[in-house]
Amino acid sequence: MARFRPFRGIRYNPEKVGELDAVVAPPYDVISADERDALYDAGAYNATRLILNRDGHAEAAKLFRAWQGDGALTRDDAPSFYLYSQDFDVDGPRRRTGVIGALHLEPFSTGVVRPHERTFSHHKTDRLALTSETKANLSPIFGLFSNADFRPEPDQGWDSPADVDVSFSGVRSRMWVVRDPARIAAISAAVDGRTIFIADGHHRYETALNYFGVARPGGALAPEGGPSDEEEPVAHVMAFLGAFEDPGMLILPTHRQVESSGGANWKSYVAMVEENFKVTRLPFDDAGRAQLQDALDSSSEETNAFGLAIRGSKELLLIEKPAAVRNNGDSPLASLDVTVLHSKLLDELLSNAGASEPEITYSADTTEVLDRVSAGKLEAVFVMRATLSDQLADVCMAGDLMPQKSTYFFPKLLTGLVFHTLER
Fold this sequence. Notes:
6-stranded antiparallel beta sheet; 9-stranded mixed beta sheet; about 25% strand; 12 helices; alpha+beta; about 425 residues; 2 domains
């Protein structure tokens, strides 16, 4: 069963570091070089100096220890959970709520914690090096579980001042330290026996498993019960857990930007797409963009649907085909948009059109990616629909893995609210 436990978090001391808005950062893997520079400039204690230090992981670890030594970071005196809510606006105001705690590590073979995406080996190597230096989880993984009754509250209610209240990129993030023993027990009980689906942070979870192997060579994770976080922190990973049923749980589409195709003939490519899919041509203007988005939003789960914009073209293409029909025992992957995109549109047809090692990047901003094509900064972009939460769960339960960047949970969890030490 899943084991979710309180821990003694390490947190910024505002009396030492000043306004907490200046210390938080998004996850390391969405920070560009320019954004890192801006976050560095935001303040001397910004968490980017820990998760993406310009001078390497050893310097990050040195800072992490120094900040604890000079009182910029202090450790809570009792194991606690950390209630985390994010208020944001996407088609109206929304709130996503969950709890940060110490999730006991489980090998994927147990089925208690389930991934849904493939990972990149170089990211895991890099994060393991950082973890080995800092001996801490600096950013939480993001996990989901199903429990419609999961409604955690601050010890003193929602009207009580939050321990952390920051705004970043238009999102208000608040965090309350949950110390009340009854509330702590209720949070743990809400997760007990549930399956945890990794929504974001696959590399960090696999890194935690790898670090346990490094820190405890030959050691085994307890199959049930087991030591607390205080007794065996390396057997745990800092995790934000939220419920599928939370009305604020939002997945955005992740569009594929073709920075360079490596020589594709796009005219030939479109001709091959038309042989394999239904293609509707729309004008590449504001009206056409709106039509494309409406068509994607209204298309059913029984249809695979994509948009395509190509540099120099005056048209947008709506690409559709009936999704694969699943029989008993069939993998749920075959019917997903991301599977069809990668196997057919990006791999087979683009290769047949002369592409060679295309450079693909990712973005969740539809307006921005289409503007980049229109301005000639991209060769093309595939406009995607969002993966649905029930599709994610189906893939996880089947033991399958989607291509990388198949989901984009919005907003991203902030780094810098609380840290989890891996040292006793």
